[in-house]
Amino acid sequence: MDAREHVWTLILALLLGSLVWLWAEGENRAKQPMVVDVEFVVPSGRDRFLVRAVSPLDGGVLVHSISVRLELEGPNLGLSRVISRVAGTTLRVPVEDPGGNRQRVIRLDRAIEELPTLREFGVTVASVDPLEVAVEIDEIIRRTVRIGTSVPGVEFDQIQVTPDRLDIALPQDEWDWLLRDVGDQFIMLDLPPSRLRDLAPGEMVTLRDIPLRMDDRLVRRGSLNVDLPRVTAELRIARRQVERAFPVPIKLNLPIRDIGRYNVTVLDLDAGDLLQNVLITGDDTRIRQLENREIAVFAVINLTSEDLERGITSKRIEWWLPPGLTARMADEAAPVVSLQISPRGPEQP
Predict the structure, then answer these.
(1) Residue 95 pLDDT more than 80?
(2) Cβ–Cβ contacts within 10 Å for residue 185, how many?
(3) DSSP H stretches of helix in 92-141
(4) Is the whole model's pTM more than 0.70, yes or no?
(5) At the topology level of CATH, where does 241-343 sit?
(6) Per CATH, which fold does 23-139 belong to?
């Protein structure tokens, strides 16, 4: 055998070995466990119907997808290709048009085996957990909702958002809950006050690429799964609300005829006759005046003659505030303070 024949013999042997290996990979069967997310769709009416599964883990809550444990079985080569295609993706299991039947039970092993990806490579479902899943099919109702433009602590003279409305699709029961418990403005600007900090009141500006956010109650419920766009807003700030903590003097307000007849002591004050950490809110100009002591805020204790005679031990304060300011404590609008009241004895000659 010359060298050329020897080379051809080696090539043929390698080819035959590769073919045998490929045949063995195609014929040898194996099993492979995996976890996938599964959601259900109505192929003939994807834009008309929403299919939600009754979660076996969350007390029967309706969810858009469930986590499923699978054990797939099939030829080695086909099994590896199926796993590479479905790993990290969501399997979309078709459900027939509901007609008048909103509820049904899906056998997951049969439904998943019918998916084209598995059938193409001869892969079957050896086991699945859960085996059956109850689903509810609801007709989708589309409505146009206005984007909310309020920003905490900021008041606008004018604001125009583009786009200012969104088309939202939800089943009727979700619309009923939303409008009853949340209101009609559940999508709003996600515009932090820090982005407005350097804008002068009265100046018309255009802000672009503003994200939107959903009401927290809607986020927790998880019923609206939509990619919110970014918007543009033309706005003019009327005034900027600021909140600062101040010590506020306490003033006693007694009837004229009772002045000098009683000793009144306010108990449990941290320093002198000052109520500490009072949160004052107003536009930045008024807050600056308060910081510069150009204006003042007082916590007033209004006592009647009856209060003094009875020697009451507590009283809710009332705020004396310049126009445009509000006051509160951290945990309540106006605190109750403890008092000690005693009549004064006759003056000694």
Answers:
(1) yes
(2) 13
(3) 108-113, 116-120
(4) no
(5) RNA Polymerase Alpha Subunit; Chain A, domain 2 (2.170.120)
(6) RNA Polymerase Alpha Subunit; Chain A, domain 2 (2.170.120)
